[in-house]
Design goal:
about 20% helix, alpha/beta, globular, about 220 residues, Dihydrofolate Reductase, subunit A
Length: about 220
């Protein structure tokens, strides 16, 4: 079997020292202005930016390049993983600033079919369907690669990050660690999901670079394959 042809995936995250993406009340003010600019520079240099539906429902982001000097053509394609098609039709990620791909499953319900038809009527929106209960991330990567998307910035929450790491689809990790402790057993972490059972199974990283940034530190790793 041939090697999987897929985009190069950079997982970027800002987290507290104890690995949280937000507090128990979903306060996610982690990155300072300079770190936001760092992330937008990465956005400017990739073909696509990927998030899960949880990020859309919680933050309603635009997922464009706007913290640095940029023109509309610098915006990457926005990719939303949305197995049950929960995306609101007025979500900002569906605006005309860039193309948006919504990845959902092959499973149909009357409401889903109706929503797909409404989304298809929108300018710059494309639907990709793969997987039955959950989006098949490996298959999706193959489809995106064939569409010319060669580099993706993954700005997922803990659930999507787990799915991508579990399927060995991440190539690089860039983390801003803020000098803050959030605590909270229910607070979202960088990677959630089922988790690996043993150290032997886990994703292993090679530290490439680290430097002080804002009040914290940036760590850059390559994923060992």
């Amino acid at each position: 079997m041939g090697e999987l042809l897929k985009p190069y995936v950079i997982s970027n995250v800002g987290m507290s020292l104890d690995g949280k993406l937000a507090t128990i009340d979903n306060d996610s003010r982690i990155s300072g202005e300079e770190d936001l600019k760092r992330v937008h520079n990465i956005r400017k240099n990739v073909d696509g930016i990927m998030v899960g539906i949880g990020t859309i429902l919680k933050d309603d982001p635009r997922l464009t390049v706007h913290k640095i000097d940029a023109k509309i053509g610098d915006n990457p394609i926005r990719i939303v993983i949305d197995s049950n098609l929960r995306i609101p039709l007025n979500a900002r990620v569906l605006n005309k600033d860039a193309k948006t791909i919504i990845a959902t499953t092959l499973k149909d319900t009357p409401n889903k079919i109706e929503k797909i038809n409404k989304l298809k009527d929108m300018e710059n929106v494309e639907i990709i369907r793969t997987g039955i209960e959950k989006v098949n991330l490996k298959k999706l990567m193959e489809i995106l690669y064939k569409k010319g998307i060669k580099k993706i910035l993954l700005e997922g929450g803990g659930t999507l990050n787990w799915g991508m790491f579990k399927e060995n689809l991440v190539d690089e990790v860039s983390v801003y660690v803020a000098p803050k402790i959030f605590g909270g057993v229910g607070a979202p972490t960088y990677v959630d999901g089922e988790g690996f059972k043993t150290v032997d199974e886990c994703v292993k990283l090679k530290l490439e670079k680290y430097y002080p940034f804002d009040e914290g530190i940036v760590l850059e790793f390559k994923v060992k394959k």
